[in-house]
Specification:
Shape: globular
Distance between the termini: 25 Å
Number of strands: 46
Length: 523
């Protein structure tokens, strides 16, 4: 929650009056901004608290998911010794604990092996959200217990305020936001870590714990000499970051160590790397470029050397950054290269990749089996005098790299519903592509296009109308689709089975403006 302090400075300054201005949809309760529709401590009104194992939904208290109402109490029938399997069944005497084994709930003398006795409730503290990690440690509303720690369903990157917000599947708040380096542009989750990339005014990679009680970043990796990080992906528990300012791929360890920086070819014209996808040890990088002759294509790197470069205990570089044979100086330490640049697959001569006078502008990438799918934005200048390409020249495309056929490239036309594709997510055997033009939304409104991959060739399906937002990606969490908005702080949820979109929800706060830079599901 953001507090805006207004200081009124008359000619004679006696004091600074503090005024709490709450975001839209929140009110002040006891000096804090709260949502009366979702805050369990102020449900429907200030100070109106819900009981244990209850949540606030729509301004009214209700039993949390996984619990049942027994009179005025919300209980877990599978573990509650006072309501064991049914509201009127209480444990006691020789069978004081309530345990569920093989789907059968009953009172027992002791808890089964692997379960903890929490006041007569037999629970798995690694997954029980009301006893997470230890008896009595409950997760907040919208959080789940995974490996003994509380995690939110989704993590949302708010670009304008450079903070990561945890939310529920219903897009309700699930805890406080956490600040990262200014210029937040994307995020990725690996194991129990949340990696974020920030690109301006200075580039950095922040590593956060998925444990919501750890507020500050565990590590911050300052990417010296850069001001533009465009993409991040996780491979072999390492973060691979596209450093667009210098045309390189940076490799960051979970300990917050920059292990290597591998340059791509054509540095003079600037390959402008964006998203990265892996097939085995090979990385395929979307080279967005800048315009004609800027190397728009697909960069290919081989990271077979990861095991060697990730070994801790590197020695310091010598005078002038000198290192021994087979090593090079990375941030003051001598390390072997994590990988090597192999080639660039050009797209300028690939038939059907774009509509002249447009250019392909590859941006997002996702590997499915032995194929890599990359979005081609297919953009042109709005007029010849313009310096930038941002108007769709036609429908968006997918470039498909078949690594089993010597990296052969084919093109899939996403059809008239898709302009400026900029997001990819896989659900089952269907690849979903987020499409939408920020400046030309009237002609190319927001759509999410399904592409079925189970057949011999990709088949483009019926698009989902998400024109209430300007898509900045797509993700699937808990069986539902989520589309972040690059024109506001909203997130839209849709049902991929029915194709129906819900009303977008304000998630990211406004600070003069707002946009959702990225979102990701908790593991």
């Amino acid at each position: 929650m953001k507090r805006l302090i207004l200081c009124l400075l008359p000619l004679v300054l006696f004091a600074c009056k503090k005024e709490l201005i709450c975001p839209q949809g929140e009110v002040e309760c006891g000096g804090a901004c709260v949502s009366l529709t979702s805050d369990a401590a102020h449900c429907g009104g200030c100070g109106l608290a819900c009981g244990a194992q209850a949540v606030c939904a729509g301004g009214s208290c209700a039993c949390a998911a996984g619990t049942a109402a027994c009179g005025a109490a919300c209980v877990v029938l599978a573990t509650d010794p006072a309501h064991c399997g049914a509201c009127d069944t209480a444990c006691g005497g020789a069978a004081p604990v309530c345990s569920t084994e093989a789907g059968v709930t009953a009172c027992a003398a002791t808890c089964a092996i692997g379960l903890a006795d929490c006041g007569g409730a037999c629970v798995d503290t690694s997954s029980d959200r009301f006893h997470c990690g230890a008896c009595g440690t409950a997760c907040a509303a919208g959080q789940a217990c995974r490996a003994g720690a509380c995690h939110a369903d989704l993590q949302v990157a708010c670009g304008a305020t450079s903070e990561v917000l945890p939310v529920t599947f219903e897009l309700a708040p699930a805890g406080p936001g956490r600040a990262v380096t200014a210029g937040l542009g994307g995020l990725a989750i690996s194991d129990d870590l949340l990696f974020t990339i920030s690109g301006f005014p200075a580039a950095a990679v922040d590593l956060l714990s998925l444990d919501p009680t750890v507020a500050a970043p565990l590590h911050t990796v300052d990417v010296v000499g850069s001001s533009d990080l465009e993409g991040i992906t996780i491979h072999d528990h390492l973060a691979f970051v596209s450093n667009a300012a210098v045309g390189a791929i940076d490799v960051v360890s979970p300990a917050g160590v920059l292990l290597d920086e591998l340059p791509l070819a054509d540095q003079q014209t600037g390959p402008n790397p964006h998203a990265i996808a892996f097939v085995g040890p090979r990385a395929f990088v979307a080279l967005y470029g800048f315009g004609p002759g800027s190397g728009q294509g697909i960069g290919v790197l081989d990271f077979s050397g990861l095991a060697a470069c990730a070994v801790p205990g590197a020695t310091a570089c010598g005078a002038g950054g000198t290192c021994g044979a087979g090593l090079h100086c990375v941030e003051g330490t001598c390390r072997p290269a994590c990988g090597t640049y192999q080639k660039t697959i050009g797209l300028a001569g690939v038939a059907g990749a774009f509509d002249a006078p447009g250019l392909p502008f590859p941006s997002k990438a996702l590997a499915v089996g032995d194929r890599v799918y990359l979005t081609l934005s297919n953009l042109k200048k709005p007029d010849p005098s313009s310096s930038f390409y941002f108007q769709p020249a036609g429908s968006g495309r997918l470039a498909v790299v078949d690594t089993a056929r010597a990296d052969a490239v084919s093109i899939v036309d996403l059809g008239p519903a898709c302009g400026n594709p900029g997001g990819l997510a896989l659900r089952g055997t269907t690849l979903w592509v987020a499409c939408g033009s920020f400046s030309y939304a009237a002609d190319w409104p927001g759509r999410v296009v399904p592409v079925e991959l189970s057949g011999a060739a990709p088949v483009v399906g019926t698009a989902v109308d998400v024109s209430a937002v300007v898509p900045n990606g797509v993700a699937f969490c808990g069986g539902q689709g989520y589309v972040p908005d690059q024109a506001s702080g909203k997130v839209l949820r849709f049902d991929p089975s029915t194709g129906l979109a819900e009303t977008p929800v304000d998630v990211c706060p406004v600070q003069g403006f707002a946009y959702v830079a990225d979102l990701a599901c908790a593991p």
